[in-house]
Design a protein that fits this description.
three-stranded parallel beta sheet, globular, 3 strands, Rossmann fold, 46% helix, 99 residues, alpha/beta
């Protein structure tokens, strides 16, 4: 049984729920009471995304970056790794607590 779902999108904003794939995934997961954690390269309007039903919305970039910087393979890889490690730490904690 699936207990949570994580997905990603280049840009997460209020349009995410308007026909983009993450919105469809969120809707399908919601029908089965599966919480969805979203990861975005760029995140705007987090409160609207939470109101749509996303349990959490995490940005990959830890600070504003230029497009040139964001496109650098090592920079992006390190940021994705850091974000996923933090997400997995939270999931591991809740799973170990049987919450």
């Amino acid at each position: 049984m699936l207990t949570w779902l994580s997905l990603s999108e280049g840009k997460m904003d209020k349009q995410t729920g308007m026909g983009k794939a993450p919105g469809g995934v969120l809707k399908a997961a919601g029908k089965q009471d599966i919480p969805v954690i979203a990861i975005g390269g760029y995140v705007e309007e987090v409160s609207e995304l939470n109101a749509m039903g996303f349990l959490a919305v995490l940005p990959i970039l830890p600070f504003p970056a230029t497009l040139e910087q964001a496109m650098q393979k090592e920079f992006t890889s390190n940021n994705i790794t850091r974000t996923l490690e933090q997400q997995l730490r939270v999931i591991h904690y809740f799973n170990s607590q049987n919450i």
